[in-house]
Amino acid sequence: SAVVPPASNSATNTNTTMHATVPPTKRTPNDFIFGKVIGEGSFSTVYLTKDIHTQKEFAIKVCEKHYIIKEKKTEYVKREKDILFYLSNTPFIVKLYYTFQDAERLYFVLSYAKNGELLPHINKVGSFDVECTKFYSGEILVALEYLHNMNVIHRDLKPENILLDENMHIMITDFGSAKMYKPAVDRKTKNGVSGCNDDEDEPRRRKNSFVGTAQYVSPELLTDKPVTPSSDLWAFGCIIYQMISGLPPFRSRSEYIMFQKITKLEYEFPSGFCEKARNLVEKLLVLDSEQRIGATDKVKYSSIRSHPFYESLDFDNLHKTTPPPIY
Ligand code: ATP
What we know:
- The structure is a single chain.
- By secondary structure, the chain is of the alpha+beta class.
- It has helices at about 65-70, 75-85, 120-125, 130-150, 205-215, 220, 230-245, 255-265, 275-285, 300-305, and strands at about 10-15, 30-40, 45-50, 55-65, 95-100, 105-110, 150-155, 160-165, 170, 180.
- The strands form 3 sheets. The protein has a 6-stranded antiparallel sheet. The chain has a two-stranded antiparallel ribbon with strand order 7-10. It has a two-stranded antiparallel sheet with strand order 8-9.
- The longest helix is centred in the middle third of the chain and has 20 residues, at about 130-150.
- It is globular, with a radius of gyration of 20 Å.
- About 35% of the residues are buried.
- Adenosine-5'-triphosphate binds near residues 41, 44, 46, 94 and 174.
């Protein structure tokens, strides 16, 4: 049943206050027909909508201002908006088309991921075959190459934040925890320690988000070491493991025990785990972030692309390729 948020006529476009690319066309909630709710976040509701002019479908994320202020999420929401505009137009990353607001709400017009999150697709079949794992992890790698070349670290990469569009290609989402990374040359903190978890404007990580993400969190984040792009490579290793085996490598009911397992690199491969995939995962799940495969690549991520697991995968044309069926 269609749920329509009361779209105010006084909606104003906020593009003039944005730091990044300003989208050309102004839109208001009245330019969209609001359909069903497709998801709910801790302070947002996402609707399937249709642009009344073009009939094109979009996902619109609606955030209640008073709730954002009450929950002190202003920085988080602003960060997501700024980074998504900055990332603009690239395959495999959700696109933010417009933002606008009315007195009570903020609206984010996003590309619609018709096939939802990656996680239920893995869970439905139990695990991916090698072909599927190569393809989907290949798309994630291409997205990470783009992000890291743009000096953005996602910091919350997990199968729930990887959405699938109507053609079953991936779209990485949820940039609220993401961070602009200072490249090595000017990467010095007040204490002279290289890294990038030093910003004073750093929004506090959402507690619930952190709980949900615990399985993919890198050891450096748990031991207060600098978080670098390589932290996303750790999560990438966890995701490849999960695609092949059905479950993430570090698991426990107790978050404390799970964190211990992560910092001690305590995990096992089930029997029958593809050997080449195993070799790649072992090179990604390395405690020292600088020793992970790809971490020192001049051309990101040539060393991962040329790993034997990806033999014959045409990385540059993945977005034009029909994805292999999931089973
Ligand atoms: P939280 O803010 O609590 O971490 P979240 O990041 O999942 O949660 P939202 O970004 O509001 O919150 O997304 C809520 C749900 O809506 C998600 O679980 C996702 O499945 C769905 N969703 C979000 N964006 C899209 C999109 N562009 N297309 C399709 N579904 C989406």
